[in-house]
Write a structure and sequence with these properties.
single chain, mainly alpha, 82% helix, 8 helices
């Protein structure tokens, strides 16, 4: 039942996006709208996957962390595919030129490859071998935040709140690492 609820919540942004695009049909710039919804969903889900280890003493969702992370990757992939298919129309010279010319795009690409690596190495066998590299998710979260702020070309209260939340998570994660190191 929890797993079904997890998928329903995680797929809600996709259902919302498709409803707005194809049923309600009131979106002026569909490509930008897809960027916004898929980017926000990916960010929130990756953000939540990080929080799971911090709240495990209160609410233990650790057995769902891998699935949540893969759902975050799903939205990240949709975000990238929007760029490649709809925006660039499979013009890979354009993709490369835009990636090199616009810092927010290459920061997003770096974050994507980190999350891709994590998705590929999330199987039991590969996770045992590469789990120490999964800490790169924190770097990806920082890159995603910078990518988001640069894409918006302005910082608003939501972004300040998000930056503050990342700093708080970083602090508690560092604190958790120190406590774990002293116990060992």
């Amino acid at each position: 039942m929890k797993r079904l609820f997890l998928y329903l919540i995680s797929l809600a942004p996709l259902v919302y996006l498709l409803t707005k695009l194809f049923i309600i049909d009131d979106v002026n710039d569909p490509i930008k709208y897809i960027y916004t919804i898929t980017g926000a969903a990916a960010t929130v889900i990756v953000f939540f996957s990080i929080i799971i280890s911090l709240i495990k003493d209160k609410i233990n969702l650790m057995k769902y962390r891998k699935e949540i992370g893969l759902l975050g990757f799903f939205y990240t992939l949709l975000h990238l595919l929007n760029f490649i298919i709809l925006d660039a129309q499979f013009d890979f010279n354009f993709v490369i030129k835009e990636t090199l010319d616009k810092p927010f795009i290459y920061l997003g690409m770096i974050a994507f490859f980190i999350i891709l690596f994590m998705a590929i190495t999330s199987t039991k066998k590969l996770y045992k071998k590469y789990n120490r590299y999964h800490k790169l998710v924190y770097l990806s979260l920082i890159l995603i935040t910078i990518h988001w702020i640069m894409a918006q070309k302005a910082i608003n209260i939501l972004q300040f709140t998000y930056i503050l939340a990342i700093l708080v998570i970083g602090y508690y994660k560092l604190f958790q690492q120190i406590i774990n190191a002293t116990r060992s």
